[in-house]
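User: If only I could read backbone structure tokens as easily as an amino acid sequence. Underneath my words sits a plain record pairing an amino acid chain with its backbone structure tokens. This is the protein in question:
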Amino acid sequence: MAGGSRGGFPAWMTAAAARIDLSGGAAATSGSQPPQPGPSPAVVADQELGMAERALSAASAAFISAIIVNPLDVAKTRLQAQAAGVPYYQAPQMAALGPDAILSELRCSPSCTRGIILGSEPICPPDCFQYKGTVDVFLKVVRQEGFGRLWRGTNAGLALAIPTVGIYLPCYDIFRNKIEDFTRSNAPGLTPYAPLVAGSVARSLACIACSPIELARTRMQAYKEFQPGVKPPGMWKTLLGVLSPHASPGQNVQNYRVLWTGVGAQLARDVPFSAICWSTLEPIRRKLLGLVAEDGDAASVLGANFAAGFVAGSLAAGVTCPLDVAKTRRQIEKDAQKAMRMTTRQTLVDILRSEGPKGLFTGVGPRVARAGPSVGIVISFYEVIKYALHQRNMS
């Protein structure tokens, strides 16, 4: 266990990261001291935090992350939805265009030089509304829909992130501690795999519990409102819109299964993401924290956690991008019967046949750009808030 830093701060922050080394043995103390038997006080303190305190720490970290990275999530979803055929251009009704017609929705930008003269006003061709990349999504959303649209779905994102991460990180902490304790006594060679197993199980629980909110967020971010002055539907209206085709006088539990549309694709994406992320994050974090153990302050420990989270999140996001594309395709499908028949495997095969390998990585840029900072922020702030709660309990 790394320790001996100012005020004990790094000792607390490194408690979870320094419990094991890659060979499955106990982590060494700072410097050249041999390992000490039994858990250190910092590890004991980490284990003594209750589920409610861990959930509060995780939810607070998720709140901050969701607000910061939401524009990248919008860009990723728009690019994936566009590839699936979602229109972002509404053809003008020629007869309905009078001298007072509002044509802002028919211009990709006031400065566009490609406009076609219709009456006395220029109108952009359809390809002007096609998104060509992450930055292009940002520019066109701001120009056509307003700056605030980059945070479209933030309410659903917060409603999703807080309970999801509030379930995910505390369960990961608890499962990892239990698995490490068990394997250290019974199968030391399996101890390095504790983060992989704990992360996969914790993420599965969080995905299943919060899948309807993920469905609402994806649809809110994917679709564009064409009517000027009309407010796009919020999270609850979006979910009611999903349910409406299945409404019947004898409404039963089976009809609500549609709210979990794409949950299989979401699990297929998030479980491998979690396994890759934690398996990468823990060894990197241990290495970085080992470098700052003696002289590290709060900033250096936060930096180590953020850097490890950034690298792990970026790698996991890139590898699992095809599964994210499949999830988006399934969740934006408006034909309820088709959506219920779709499978993740068939969706991936269809994308590969129609668009080639490139189609499987649609939106990979904003997905990686979002996941790296998001994981780094969540991990860093989670540890900080756990530390603050621990200090409050101690006092």
User: Anything to note?
Assistant: Residues 51-83 form the longest helix (33 residues). The two ends are 24 Å apart (CA to CA). Residues 1-45, 93-105 have pLDDT under 50 and may be disordered. The chain has 14 helices and two strands.
